[in-house]
């Protein structure tokens, strides 16, 4: 039980470690969205066109995709302190290179692309999810993981606001320098205040049998075997397939907001702030309360159903006002899908593998960012915005049908 780990929590205690984890997550996400807010302008300043910027985004997505499962396994083997410290140091390297890329006397384009490389180790959110998972009871887990969405929403709002404000007032290099200092502070706090392990007593000390070689952090078989455990692969596939159409739309949203909605940069920023506020409220407050009254399976089906309804509305929308009306449903389904599937997946594996499982789960978003620009651009250019709604409706109706049939089979088995 989580209480067994209290002996290694130090002076903060379990509630203090959990609270600090939320703070560190908010800090890292704020810096991440500060980076996102200045990256297009820095790329334009350095003379990169939209194709080169797409390559930059694809490299970042691919590195995160490859690094997520390995980072999760590293967190399981080396502990929470080492994992979070490594993530913050990797993020610090990214912002150091970004700040250097802003200098006219240095090779800016090379440094900009080089700044993507440490992203393979920057996984603060999965590390925080592992800590929260290890230190909460299974019944509390959906609500505790949902509060990380509150951190995400704060990061979206503060990061976007600070990135634009600092770059306008002090130059485009300023947000990168501020993010560098903030992440160095995060690394220090992680190393000094986060316990070396948040697992149950004896969980992390799973030594191999005598004569057997110790498994490596890069052991892909050990990582992929988790998907073959009972109940893991179906939930993982639902997470990937159900959320992928929305992921494509969000990847293309910056283009859609300019071309289809005819929004200025400031107006698009207000819309993203609205998205962040909705995510804070739904993931931080609503999902936790719903999890007290409904099972995770019921919430999963509800998220898929809402996805389908939102897809239909998206296929019919014609202006930004329509999008604002459907945005609460979109955010609800997206947040519920992510929180519930993460909770179900961590319950399906042993406590010693929660970090690896969360790393696999976290690789879903980078997968969308890797495939999204090409596939989403092709769909948008060929069929326009309604195609995203049609795909989302069709995919989620199919997923809902599969989940419903599974529920019917379970009822029949119980009746027998």
Helix and strand layout, with pairings?
Layout lengths: L12 H33 L4 H29 L1 H22 L6 H7 L9 H11 L6 H30 L2 H21 L26 H5 L7 H20 L1 H7 L5 H29 L2 H21 L3 H29 L5 H9 L1 H20 L2 H30 L1
Describe the structure.
47% of the residues are buried. The longest helix is centred in the first third of the chain and has 33 residues, at 13-45. The protein is an all-alpha fold and 416 residues long. Residues 1-8 and 201-213 have low confidence and may be disordered. The chain starts with 12 loop residues before the first helix and ends with a helix. It has 16 helices and no strands. Helix 6 crosses helix 13.
The low-confidence runs, each spanning 5 or more residues with pLDDT under 50, are: 1-8, 201-213
Q: What is the mean pLDDT?
A: 83
Largest sheet: none
Quaternary structure classification: single chain
What is the helix/strand order?
A: HHHHHHHHHHHHHHHH
Query: DSSP helix count?
Result: 16
Helix content: over 70%
- The outline comes out as globular
N- to C-terminal separation?
34 Å
Radius of gyration: 21 Å
The strand count comes to: 0
Question: Structural class of the secondary structure composition?
Answer: mainly alpha
Indicate the proportion of strand residues: under 5%
